[in-house]
Amino acid sequence: MDTMVRTMFQSTSASLPEVVRMATLTPAQRTGIDSKTGSVAVGKQADLVVLDKSLNVQSVYVSGKEATF
Fold first, then answer.
1. What is the pTM of this model?
2. pLDDT one-digit tens code per residue, 3-37
3. Contact predicate 38/27, CB 8 Å
4. Quick check: 18 and 26 in contact, CB under 8 A?
């Protein structure tokens, strides 16, 4: 998914917030799970991906805890 975010941002006129929404909230809304995932809000799952300025993955959090690989 990070590759998709980088590609969409570099290849279209969409802003970074628009591209991130395309990868997060929009799919959650389409599948009916946006009440628990797809955006950062109190009460949601806290599954997060932290990207650097080049949009490469720096860290991943699952249920608010940093995942190790």
1. 0.84
2. 999 999 999 999 999 999 999 999 999 999 999 99
3. yes
4. no
Is the C-alpha dihedral spanning 24, 40, 17, 50 positive or negative? Answer: negative
Nearest to 1 by CA among 48, 37, 66: 48
- Cα dihedral sign, 6-7-10-16: negative
Run of H or E residues at 66: strand 65-66
CA distance 35 to 7: 28
Residues found in the chain = 69
Q: How far does CA 38 lie from the centroid of its chain?
A: 7
Return the structure tokens found at 50: 């932290």
Half-sphere exposure at residue 69, Cβ-oriented, CA atoms within 13 angstroms: 6
Handedness of CA 3, 8, 22, 57 (dihedral sign): positive
